[in-house]
Amino acid sequence: MISVTRLPEPSILTQKKEKWLAAFLKKRESKPDASPHSKQYGHEEIRETLETMSFHKCFYCEQELGETEGQVDHYVEVAEKPERAFEWNNLYLSCPLCNGKKSYNIKIPVSDCLDPCDISENPSAHLSFDDEHIIQRQNSVKGAKTIQKYKLNRRQLRYLRLKQLQRFERFLRKLLERKNREGRKEFTLLEKEAILRFKEPHHAFSLMFNVYLSGIEF
Ligand SMILES: [Zn+2]
Fold it and tell me: I need a labelling partner for 4 at 20 to 30 A (CA). Which of 76, 106, 113, 181 fits?
């Protein structure tokens, strides 16, 4: 998880949110467990804006999302706050698994966890890594609860993170071999930039690379 900066509300939402919400709340009067229409809150324009915000990654686990994989997610569940069903600040982008784990772990309130859209929070102060395993940083309770709520150490994610680490190692080895072959003591500026690109926000699991690259001197 990294901080995500919110873009302005998509125009479809500005135009339709009141109408959509009124219809949804009315439906709930006769059917209390009714869900809002995913075609409305998950409208293409809304999903695309969220994808741009997160560089096509899940807000929670930072894995890259394919064309149709991203799900528009209610940060505060609709069951808890139906009046927030079409509120722009309550719409996040999630991979199917984080979305599923999140509602399954409903006993852990989101208020106990890191909020990727809260710019006052710094996920790297709460989360760290041990190889491909995500761990809480310095006994951060918030970090631990975030890992637990979204199951950030699930097997599929550990596998994807391990693959990325192996990719990085192969890349670094190639650069080191070239540096040695050319008898250089240092990486070139371009090589340093290429290494640091792994921790930029557009990269999958950039928080993990931030942790690993922060201690390395070039
Ligand atoms: Zn995810």
Answer: 106
What is the rounded CA–CA span in Å between residue 110 and residue 175?
A: 42
Query: Which amino acid, residue 162?
Result: L
Which of helix, strand or coil describes residue 109? coil
Q: How far is CA 73 from the centre of its chain?
A: 12
Report residue 17 as tokens. Answer: 């949110």
Question: What H or E segment, with its residue span, contains residue 150?
Answer: helix 141-150
Q: How far apart are CA 85 and CA 10, in angstroms?
A: 15
Write down the pTM of the prediction: 0.92
* pLDDT tens by residue, 140-197: 999 999 999 999 999 999 999 999 999 999 999 999 999 999 999 999 999 999 999 9
Q: How far is the CA of 81 from the centre of ligand 1 (A)?
A: 22
Q: Which residue has the tokens 């070239």?
A: 178
Q: How far does the centroid of ligand 1 lie from the alpha carbon of residue 2, in Å?
A: 12
Ligand 1 centre to CA of 34 (Å) is 25
